[in-house]
Amino acid sequence: MSTDAEQQLLHHARNGNAEEVRQLLETMERNEVIADINCKGRSKSNLGWTPLHLACYFGHRQVVQDLLKAGAEVNVLNDMGDTPLHRAAFTGRKELVMLLLEHNADTTVVNGNGQTAKEVTHDKEIRNMLEAVERTQQRKLEELLLAAAREGRTAELTALLNRPNPPDVNCSDQLGNTPLHCAAYRAHKQCALKLLKSGADPNLKNKNDQKPLDLAQGAEMKHVLVGNKIVHKALKRYEGPLWKSSRFFGWRLFWVVLEHGVLSWYRKQPDAVHNTYRQGCKHLTQAVCTVKSTDSCLFFIKCFDDTVHSFRVPKNSLQQTREDWLEAIEEHSAYSTHYCSQDQVTDDEEDDAVSAVDLKESLEKAQICQQRLDKEISNFLKMIKEGDMAQEMLPSFLQKVEVVAEASRETCVALSDCLHLFTKQEGVRNFKLEQEQEKNKILSEALATLATEHHELEQSLVKGSPPLSIFSEDEFYDALSEHPGDAERKGRTCVCLNTTPYCMKRSCPAIPNQADGSTLNTQAVGFSEIPEEEVTAGLFEGQNSESEGSLSRLEAVTAHSFDEEAEPPSSRQHRMSEGKDCGGGDALSNGIKKHRTSLPSPMFSRNDFSIWSILRKCIGMELSKITMPVIFNEPLSFLQRLTEYMEHTYLIHKASSLADPVERMQCVAAFAVSAVASQWERTGKPFNPLLGETYELVRDDLGFRLISEQVSHHPPISAFHAEGLNNDFIFHGSIYPKLKFWGKSVEAEPKGTITLELLEHNEAYTWTNPTCCVHNIIVGKLWIEQYGNVEITNHKTGDKCVLNFKPCGLFGKELHKVEGYIQDKSKKKLRALYGKWTECLYSVDPATFDAYKKNDKKNTEEKKNSKQMSASEESDEMPMPDSESVFVIPGSVLLWRIAPRPPNSAQMYNFTSFAMVLNEVDKEMESVIPKTDCRLRPDIRAMENGEIDQASEEKKRLEEKQRAARKNRSKSEEDWKTRWFHQGPNPYSGAQDWLYSGSYWDRNYFNLPDIY
After folding, report:
1. How high is the pLDDT of residue 477?
2. For the structural domain made of 3-122, what CATH number should be given?
3. What is the DSSP annotation of 360-401?
4. Distances (CA, A) of 914 to 295, 488, 574, 577, 728
5. Number of neighbours of residue 270 by Cβ within 10 angstroms
6. Phi then psi dihedrals of residue 697, to 5 deg
7. How far apart are CA 739 and CA 730, in angstroms?
8. 464 with 872: CB under 8 angstroms?
9. 570-582: per-residue pLDDT in tens?
10. What residues in the chain have per-residue pLDDT under 70?
11. Looking at beta carbons, which pairs linking 539-547 to residues 24 or more positions away fall under 8 Å?
């Protein structure tokens, strides 16, 4: 491209040098010079203006004519959003305005100030001329809209309605028919839907006093018009300046546009006019507005995904401005909610839907019957004619039979036509289905490709990272074990690093390497082993604060194991035996004296299967309704998975035995953390419980019994109730796992309240579980993390424990970490808690913990200055386990430590010893438990035995049986009634909960549903 030629063209067009402009255009036409006729100036005198803009503004008619003849774009925009017509009208160039209109200049284009050409001119004659042309153009657009609606040209109709200044959606023809009337009597469903979404009024009448519904052809079109009960006025675009709050940038001024149920915001008004550089948008489906009575400018919008957006009208706006915005948002929200819910189909409707194949079979049977009837009537007629019937009766009798025969033939023809119509309809549906499947395939493949590229990029970044120093705290893990998984399978070692000023250097004997039996010199790598019973650490150095100074005067600080001191010897002995052989003692549990240590069959390899291959077919579906192949399951029901909360019941017994409420809170917090520890590396999905399914577990050795029931199917809610055998506690709650699919990960938010009652102290604690996320759904190794805040409340004392399950973050520094404080009702910090939910939990004085955090932050900043840190986004890749051990702060008390998993755990779905026994059953137990107990589920039992095909068949059979039972209840208008739980307010938090109704342990199991 010749920049010189373009600059000359701009210069001559500005100065009206018609001959030079003509010569340049001729050389451009002969391709002797390559230049853009619509080029924009770069100098101060013509910045952002094209030659046509300049010629129109300065009134050079000949130049304008030559440029238009040479192909210059008549509606080209400059940087201010003006067309040449704007510039000619503004300067009062009547001849140029007429010339531009002859070349189809658009009078409806809005510039950056929101003005059309007629609104910028000061010449009354030009304004009248533009208004007349605008009316003519508008009428042409209306005629095109009416024609598109009549002919069913949906694409053309959509393009017309999506114009910056669309034609009136309620315009009419000579008979008074609106586009909606035209679409209705021609049965163009898609056109009618688009018109309704654009604000077409279904109540308008034509000159014959008929509404679109009166002209509608076919039941389907009538259903569309009847079902779309929206506000009967055109949904207007609403826009204006608003302040919007964001997490990182605070309050910023945007130009906000409300159109077709979507709220969009732009940096400036011209961007909104041309729909460019949009900063963000939000669909207003199910959106709710709230205001603050103390602030007349502020309002909030809560959207369907629970996100909240804060807006503020400018202070110099009219008092009514906020109310206008709220009213407009309410209208657009109702509009968006209505149309987004139109295509949703209930489960019952899905089950009752009849395909054309079924209709065809039914009609074919009808045809056979009809043909048989026709044949029989013919034979009957023949018989009568050949018989000796009385002559006076024969004519009337034959006439009657012929009428029946004719009716039969007509019915047969009608049925054939019906079959033809249904077959044709099925062909259209199949074509549309193929189109949607192709779109789905393209999108899913694109997403998978992006995820794979992202995965490879992250791997290349990890490989290209500079080596870390041997003294880095991120490196000490490998000194303990050659393989990252060894610490997970054989028990983790908590270490104290000498590289921080909180630890005292001390000599320590060589400790054995757990991987190969060799020894390591701990002094050489700068760490020391922390024994199970105590942790000895050194003096604080050079602290400035009073609390830190007092700590520095201590000669030694010892961290005691809270576990070993307070835990009863019997419970401790059981835990030790459980870590070896799942407890081989004489303790009775559901009639089983010795628990099994493995499953009947190891798990199948999932290496040849991909979860993404299933989820890619379910984009847009609710995850709780997706049927996953049984290969991705583990042989446990979700009710049994819930029972794993009770693995560390000794912490509840310990809490009940303590006199200090703060120490009791420590034990309860440790129990809440330990409840999710079994999920580590458990990427198998538990079986969805069937409605009415139950599970019981009695553990005399652990001192509890538990009953759970699936109380709801949609949404899936599981309720449980456990109690101590010594009447020392009651533990109950209900869980609704709300699932979200984020493309590369699946997030499970366990909705529901957990309640623990310590009966001896008349105390009740409530909390909710953290969010669980499974990463690398598309590519890479699956891994799990827990994150979110858990607030444990003692409703008697008012004490609270707020635990923060930290997300992984960059480089995995925060992986699995848990931190928090115990506070009294005045929010005074009483104890600090820290650890990892996969390993252990410690308690320490809050001043000591804050001092450690302050120093740790300082060290981290120094490392950042010495390292080249990546600024990439947060990764879904599982971080390398650089620090699989918890640094123990001096003075800490060990509250809980996870027991090592059995050696065969990796082959047994990564089950813990406790999980290994949840599904075991014998003949004596079968005679005691109810028939709804999930130990008796055939699909879970088959999978546990390694019979994958049978498990898949049984799973499908049970789901179909459950679906059929629900349909039968729906037809008989019978509501499902839970057996052992009832819905009501939680007695402590007041939230809706499922509470135990009692009488389960009476063993009177009558009238139980047949669910298996």
Report:
1. 34
2. 1.25.40.20
3. HHHHHHHHHHHHHHHHHHHHHHHHHHHS---TTTHHHHHHHH
4. 56, 16, 12, 12, 22
5. 20
6. -145, 125
7. 29
8. no
9. 344 444 334 334 3
10. 1-2, 226-235, 338-366, 369, 372-373, 376, 380, 383-394, 396, 400, 417, 420-421, 423-425, 427-428, 430-432, 434-593, 606-628, 741-743, 777-780, 809-812, 858-884
11. 539/504, 540/501, 540/502, 540/851, 540/890, 541/501, 542/501, 543/851, 545/851, 547/847, 547/848, 547/851
Q: Which of 839, 804, 814, 806 is nearest to 474 (CA)?
A: 814
Which top CATH class is 238-340? mainly beta
Query: Rounded to the nearest 10 degrees, what angle do helices 61-69 and 94-102 cross at?
Result: 10
Per domain, the residue ranges of the chain are: 3-122, 136-227, 238-340, 355-463, 566-805+899-993
Question: Which residue is listed with tokens 């995995």?
Answer: 812
pLDDT, tens only, 894-948: 999 998 899 988 888 889 999 999 999 888 888 899 999 999 999 999 999 988 8
Does the pTM of the predicted model rise above 0.85? no
Which 8-state DSSP code applies to residue 70?
T
In the numeric block, the tokens 């199949």 are attached to 430
Q: 629, 609 in Cβ contact below 8 A?
A: yes
> In CATH terms, are 136-227 and 238-340 the same topology?
no
Q: Which residues pair with 718 in a beta bridge?
A: 710, 735
* DSSP characters over 456-484: HHHHHHHHTSPPPPTT-TTSGGGGT-SST
Non-local (6+) Cβ contacts of 518 within 8 A are: 512
| CA atoms of 675 and 669, how far apart (whole Å) | 10
Query: What is the dihedral angle through the alpha carbons of 969, 970, 975, 977, rounded to the nearest 10 degrees?
Result: 40
Q: Pick left, alpha or beta for residue 615 (phi over 0 → left; psi -120 to 50 → alpha; otherwise beta).
A: alpha
Contact status, residue 506 vs residue 514, Cβ threshold 8 Å: no
User: 1002: which 2 tokens?
Assistant: 């009476």
Q: What is the DSSP string of 936-971?
A: G-HHHHHHHTT-HHHHHHHHHHHHHHHHHHHHHHHH
Q: What angle, rounded to 10 degrees, do the helices at 124-151 and 154-161 form? A: 150
Phi, psi of 522 (to 5 degrees): -70, -25
Cβ(18)–Cβ(62) below 8 Å: yes
The pair of three-digit structure tokens given for residue 297, joined into one six-digit string: 């400018």
Distance CA 972, CA 757 (A): 41
Pick the CATH number of 136-227 from 1.20.1250.20, 1.20.140.10, 1.25.40.20, 3.40.50.261: 1.25.40.20
Sign of CA dihedral 659, 660, 662, 667: negative
Residue 418: how many other CB atoms lie within 10 Å: 13
Question: How far is residue 870's CA from residue 629's CA, in Å, rounded to a whole number?
Answer: 39
Within 13 Å, how many C-alpha atoms sit on residue 400's CB side? 7
Place of tokens 């209109």: 101
Q: What angle do CA 890, 894, 898 make, to 5 degrees?
A: 135
**Cβ proximity of 130 and 117 under 8 Å:** yes
